[in-house]
Amino acid sequence: MKILGNLIWWLFGGLEAAIGYFSGSLALAITVIGIPWAWQTFKIGLLCLWPFGAEIHPSNSPNGCITIPLNILWILFGGFWAFLMHIFFGCLLCITIIGIPFGKQHFKMAGLSLAPFGKDVIPHF
Asked: How confident is the model at residue 31 (pLDDT cuts 50, 70, 90)?
């Protein structure tokens, strides 16, 4: 069922959104200072590519307290708008019964796009 959900997701905008996140990640990776944020946009793009069956878990990497200032910078420089976009589309999709599973995936992406540092995306193909 997750393969069918992912295929429908790709057909109706998920693939374009993932390409947008990946191109933003590439643009951030060109600068040296943007590499940590490039990795986070890549994680969101990966979740946007395979939302059905993917899970978000707290990271096991020893980042310590640096995740809090990085998440604050993330929110200030665009993370809040990505969060609002996913909340808007999630609410819009939850209006119909057929759109509820897709709306839930947007809510999952909204949680990751608000504070991605300190979280890992684990796709289950």
From this structure: very high
> CA nearest 24: which of 54, 56, 48?
48
Contacting residues for 93 by C-beta, under 8 A, at least 6 apart? 99, 100, 102, 103, 106
Residue with token string 């420089």: 77
CA distance 84 to 57: 21
For residue 125, the 8-state DSSP code is -
12 Cβ neighbours under 8 A, 6+ residues apart: 102
Distance CA 125, CA 123 (A): 6
* Cβ atoms < 10 Å from Cβ of 48: 29
What pTM, to 2 d.p., does this model score?
0.88
Task: State how far the alpha carbon of 83 is from the alpha carbons of 77, 91, 98, 123, in Å.
Answer: 12, 12, 23, 21
